Amino acid sequence: MADPRIIDIALDEATILWRNADIEQERRIAIFDLIEENTFKPLRAWDAGHQGPYRLKLSVDDGRLIMEASSDDGAVLETLILGLGRFRRPIREYFAICDSYYQAIRRATASEIETIDMARRGVHNEAAEMLLERLTGKVDTDFATARRLFTLICVLHIRG
Known about the structure:
By secondary structure, this protein is α+β, with helices and mostly antiparallel strands.
């Protein structure tokens, strides 16, 4: 029976050099929400008869995102490689606005926090749309899944 979704996601911990408590919380939430509800159908694996569920490992190597999709028993089905050059600006903007947001929630007014959060969501949404575009023809997924994957891509870019 077809089950096009991610049941487990792992980040290459060797890629992540440092993360603070706020970023760690973002990572935990993104993974939890992703596992709870997602749509993920790697097209080559799907066409080869592997119709989910999937385990996904994310890593970054030499400016490229490596997405390793495996079957539920751990057998690697396919590896997708995406250049991340177009994501540099959104990642940088997302980090900057998240930093402002984390500072604001500690000392700003509710309306200031809401303004920063709206900007944060805007950057996040634009990046998710860009990721959906980059995955076209490789993975069928939905906006919410792409949004959470972008959060995890950002976590992989933390350098301290």
